[in-house]
Amino acid sequence: MKDSVKKPIYIYRYTHNGRTQVIPCTVSLMSLSDLDEAVRLHKKVSLGLGPEIFVATTDEELEMLLGDKGVSVGVWHEGRLISMRAVQTDAGWVNESLVKMGLPPDPEMKTAVTDHCIVDKEYRGNNIQFLTNYEVESLVAERFSTIATTVAPMNIFSFKNILLCNFHIVGLDLQYGGYLRYTMLKRFRAEESIWTNAHLAIPIRDIKKQQQAMKEGMVGFKLKRMPTGFTVFYAPMSEKPPAGARSSRKPPKSP
Q1: What is the CA radius of gyration of the chain?
Q2: Euclidean distance between CA atoms 172 and 254, whole angstroms
Q3: SS3 for 214?
Q4: Is the per-residue pLDDT at 245 higher than 80?
């Protein structure tokens, strides 16, 4: 699975003096030889961010992610790492993370966990989070059936990106020592469907109503800015249509 092929991509770079320019970059699988760059970028990106937004990965964990306990993809420009997405694949580590998320451990070892995705601020706005997610999925989908992740409700940009990558919300609770996080899953070969015709629109600030929707078998699948603020859309997830779903001859449109 570990392939060092470098794939070219061409993205914008935004510098501090207002200059915007298309630059050539490469995407490739990372290894332990990239540890110094991973540590450098992680410290640069996490500087000034509190745990209510982002919990930094330790140097020891980065070493594990670059070794045989994870899969990491990097985006490079002129020999410098500008983005990194890392996924935990070690069974013990994954199950420990799942329990912290409020999920049951996976005895079949078919779940991976997104550890982090970081992007240098000069290269943001290029959908790199989106691109690296699908690059990682292409590397792990044969071995795993599900990816789990968390995101802070305050981190709207990352929250929207994760939903656009077709994750759905299954939990909302305190994690990382008392900080609110959504727990999200993506199943590669799901038998269930999300029935968007029976959706609920819930303000992002209404924590209890979102938690109640999930207790009733709904999952979150979309985030939308409304005149009153951001709203999260929830709908039933099941193999058969729920009783409250509206029928339509045309394919239903997402809200």
Answers
A1: 19
A2: 22
A3: helix
A4: no
What does the block give as tokens for 67?
Answer: 């070794």
CB of 218 closer than 8 Å to CB of 236: yes
Residue range 103-162, pLDDT digits in tens: 999 999 999 999 999 999 999 989 999 999 999 999 999 999 999 999 999 999 999 999
The whole-angstrom separation of Cα 210 and Cα 24 is 42
Which residue, among 107, 108, 130, has the nearest Cα to 119 in the 3D structure? 130
The token duo for 1 is 């699975």
Residue of 167, 161, 164, 166 whose CA lies nearest to 148:
167
* Residue reference for tokens 């629109």: 201
pLDDT tops 70 at residue 47:
yes
- DSSP lists the bridge partners of residue 13 as 21
Q: Can you tell me which residue has the tokens 């540890």? A: 35
The per-type count for the chain, helices as H runs and strands as E runs, is 6, 12
For the question of whether the overall pTM of this predicted structure is more than 0.85, the answer is: yes
The residues that bridge with 10 in the sheet, in sequence order, are 24
How does DSSP classify residue 249?
S
pLDDT, residue 252, reads 47
What count of other Cβ atoms lies within 10 Å of the Cβ of residue 234?
26
Return the number of other C-beta atoms located less than 10 Å from residue 145's C-beta: 17
Rounded to an integer, what distance in angstroms lies between the CA atom of residue 205 and that of residue 82?
A: 33
User: What are the structure tokens assigned to 207, written together?
Assistant: 């924590």
Alpha-carbon gap, residue 216 to 68, rounded angstroms:
39
Q: 208-211 contacts: CB < 8 A, separation 24 or more?
A: 210/169, 210/172, 210/234, 211/172, 211/173
Rounded Cα gap, residues 80 and 17, in angstroms: 20
Cα 116 from Cα 74, distance rounded (Å)? 12
